[in-house]
Amino acid sequence: MKRLSTLVLAASLLAGTALAQAPDGSTLVIAQSTDANTFDPANISSRTTSNIAEHIFGTLYDVTGDGEIVPFLAESHEVSEDGKSVTFKLKEGLTCHDGEPLTAEDAAYSFNRAADPDLKFTGNTPGFIYSSIGFEEAVADDDLHVTLKLKNKSPILLGMIGEVFIHCKGSYEAMSPEEAAQTPIGSGPYKFVEWVRDDRVVLEKWDDYTLEPGSFDRLVWRVIPEASTRAAELMAGNVDVITNVAPDQIETINRSDKAEVVPVQGTRRIYIGFNQKDKFAETEGGKAIQNADVRRALQYAVDVPTICEGLLGTPCTRATGLVNPPRGNPDLEPYPYDPDKAEELLDAAGYPRGDDGVRFTLTLQSPNGRYLNDANVALAVGQFLSDIGVKTDVELLEFASVYIPLIRAHDAGPLFLLGSGGATWSALYDMADLSAVDAGTNYTEWKDEEFFAGWKKIEAAQTPEEEREVINEMLKIFYERGPWLLMYFQPDFYGISERLDWEPRRDEHINVTDAKLK
Amino acid sequence: MWTYIVRRLIQSVIVIIGVTLISFTALQMSGDPTYLYVSERASDEEIALARQKLGFDRPYYVQYLTFVANLAQGDFGESLSYRTPALDVVLERFPATIELTAVAMVIAIFGAIPLGVMAARRRGRPTDGTIMTLAIIGQSIPSFWLGIMLILFVGLGLGWLPISGHVPVLKPILEGHVLEGLRNIPAAVPYLIMPAFTIALFSLSRNARLVRSSMLEVLSQDFVRTARAKGLAERRVISDHALRNAWLPVVTMIGLEFGFLLSGVVVVETIFSWPGVGRLVFNAINQRDIPLVQTAVVIFSFVFVLLNLAVDLVYAWLDPRIRLR
Lengths: 518, 325
Fold this sequence. Notes:
- The structure holds 2 protein chains of 2 kinds.
- By secondary structure, chain A is of the alpha+beta class.
- Chain A is 33% helix and 22% strand.
- Chain A has helices at 2-18, 47-56, 104-115, 124-133, 157-160, 169-174, 177-182, 227-235, 250-255, 284-288, 292-299, 304-312, 339-348, 374-387, 399-408, 427-431, 449-460, 464-481, and strands at residues 27-32, 61-63, 69-71, 74-79, 85-90, 135-140, 145-150, 190-196, 200-205, 218-223, 241-242, 259-274, 360-367, 390-397, 415-420, 484-497, 500-501, 516-517.
- Chain A has a 10-stranded mixed β-sheet, sandwiched between helices. A 4-stranded antiparallel β-sheet of chain A has the order 4-5-7-6. A two-stranded antiparallel ribbon of chain A has the order 2-3.
- The model of chain A is unreliable at 1-5 and 7-20 (pLDDT under 50).
- Chain B is 77% helix and 0% strand.
- Chain B has helices at residues 2-29, 44-54, 60-72, 86-110, 112-121, 126-140, 143-157, 170-174, 178-219, 222-229, 234-271, 277-286, 290-318.
- Chain B has a single domain (86-324), classed as MetI-like fold (Orthogonal Bundle).
- Chain B is globular and about 85 Å long.
- By secondary structure, chain B is mainly α.
- Chain B is built from 13 helices and no strands.
- Chains A and B meet through helix 1, helix 4, helix 7, helix 8 and helix 15 of A and helix 2, helix 4, helix 7, helix 9 and helix 12 of B.
C-alpha cells in the first residue's frame, strides 16, 4: 500500500511538472473543441482557426464585441464618389512579426494574394467575402495608402474586411504553401510560437507591437474535443476559458467555485423555414403555408421562451426578425405564445379543424446534432403545431451529406429548421440571406415583391437615416408575412475561470487581448 | 519461409487496394463533401468553383484511379482541410497512437497472463470467481464511460493523474532527438495511464478469460501430469510446460488485438485529447477529407497486415508442428 502511495505521489508530481501549458500569471489557456486546420490567411474558413488567427494577424478595420466597426491597422478611410474605390490610410510604424515594415504594398498583396486563382484558395476571404463586397483588386498608392477597387458600392465593406488578414509580402512570397499553412508570420498582437497538431497552438506577445497589446504574455489554445473533458479541465484549473459547454454541465461547473458558465445570446439565427417552392404547393399543408395569414397564425402557436428554458438551458427573448439585436426594428414585439389566437387565425384563413381535429398536415425536417439540441427543438415545435391541429411529422436528417444538399437545392421542407450565421455590426449583413428572390440563400423561395423592392430603395438612400427607415419597413414586412417561423438566437455557453476578467462576445469570436486577471 | 513472407506481402497489397476501394466508395456515397469546405453563404457559382478546386467535379472512378496511380508513386495527395500533404499529417500523429496502443497492448497481454494463470490454478475457488467476475465486468464497461469516470474521479476528484493531454516520447526519438524522447518518459507516463487502461480493459478481461481456459485445457494434458510426476516444481511446470502451450491461442489474439485496439483509440483519443491518428481519422471522416482518410486507411492496413504476418511467424516458432507454406 505504501509503495502504491509513493507511486501515485510520484505520478502526481510528474504530472505537475509536465503540465507546461497550465495557466499562470502570464499564461492564458483557452480550450476549443476542434483544432485549427491551416494558418494560411487566405485558406482559413473555420471559426476555431479564425479565433487564433485574429491574435496573429491584424486587419484594416475590426468589429468590436459590441458590433462597432473600428480602425485597426488602418487609421482612416475615404470612399470615392461612386463608392467603387475605398482608400485606407495605414497607421505609421507598423511591422510584421519578422521585422519587415508593413506598408500599403503589403496590405494590397494580402488582398490580391487571396484572390489569385492560380493559388486555388478556398478560405472565407476568396470564397465568400470578396463576392459579398464585389472585390476587384487592391492597389498600393504609396507607402501608407491602399485602395480597394470594387465592382459596386458596398455598404458592408468595413465589417466584412474585418476578417481579411494582413501580412507582409516579403515573408509570404518566400514561403512554400506548407510553410504558409503551418508557420504564420502575422501583424497582430501575438506571434506564432508552435502548433502541436490536435494538441495546442502557442502564441507569445509580440514585443514590437505598436498598437494596444494584450495583457497576457502567452496564449495557449488547447484542443479538447470532448465537452466533459473540457469541463473537467476548467474545474481542475488547467484552462481558463472553454467553449461549447453542454447545458447539462452548467450547474456542475457553477457549483465548483473554480469557474462559472456565462451564457451569451449568440448571433446564429435559428428559425423554421416555410418553404414556398412550387412543388410543395401540391400538398394541402404546403399550399397552406404559402398563405401569409397561415404563416402569421403559426407564429402564435409556438412557445419559444419555454423551448429555450427547457431545451437550451437558458432563458431567451424570441426573435422579431432576421436581424440581430440591437439592429433590428425597435418597434416590433416578439410574437407571444397564444394558441387560441393561432386557432382563431387559422379558422379565419379558411383552415378549420376537420372531424379528426386536423386542419392540415406538414413535414418538419431538421438536422440532428448540428445546432444546440436541434432535434428536440424540432420535436417540440412539431408538438406545438400539432396541438393547434396542424399535424406535423418531424424528420431528423444527417446534416452534412443529406440535409445541406436539400437546403441548398431549396428542397427541404415544407417546414425546415435551420441556423443561419449573423453579425452584430450590420442589419444589412443579416438581411443578405434574402438579398434577392433568386438568391441561393433564399431557401424558402419567398417572393414578397414589397420586401424585395426595398433593396432598390436602400441603394438609393442618401443618408444612413433614410437607409434605416427602409430597413425598418422591410423588417416589418418580414415580421408580418415573412417566410420564417421566428425562433431565437442560439445561445453559446462559455466556461470562464474565476481568476479571469473577460466577457465573451455574441458573435462566436474569441478575442482575449482584453482579458486580464481579476 | 521467405517465399511465404513475399507471398503474404503481395497479398497485402491486394488487401490494401481492396480496403481503399471500400473506404473511398463509402465516403463518396455519403454525399458531396464540397459543402463542408465553403461558407454557408457561398453562392452556387462559388460552390461550383470550390468543387472544381477540390477535384470533386470529376467522376468517382477517375478520382479513385488518380488516387491509386499517385499512391503507386508514393504520393498520397494533399489533405483538403489541412492543405498539406496527407502523409505528413498522418505520420505526424502516428507516434502518439503507437505509444498509446503499445502500452495498452502491454497491459492487455501481460496483465492478462498472471490473472488467467492464477484463475486456472485456483479453479473453482474464490480467487478464480473474483477474477472472472471482474473480467466480465471489464468486458461489459463501454470505454467512453470508463474514460469519463476516470477523468472525473481519478483526474478531477483525486487529482492523481492529469485529465487530458500528451507528452511525446516516440516522436522526438524518431526525429533523432533520442535523449529528449527518453527524458520525456517520466513526464509522459502519468498522461498515458488513464487512456491506455481505458483502451486495454476490454482486451485485458477477454485475454484473462482466454488464458484461463487455455491453461485449464493444457493442465489436464498428459505431459503436464508427467512433468509433475517426475517431481518438477509447480512453478516450472506452469512456466516451462503449461504456459508455453497455452500461449498459442493468446498469440493468435495478439495479431487481432492491434486492430481492435486501434478501433478503440478513436473514442479514447477524443475523450483524453490525445493527439493521435484515431482522432484525426474521426475528424477527417466528419470533414469528408478523402485523401486524409485514405492515407490513414492505407497505413493502418499495412501495419495490420505486417503484424499478422509477424504473428504467423511467431506461431510457427512456438509450435514446430506448424509449417509455413
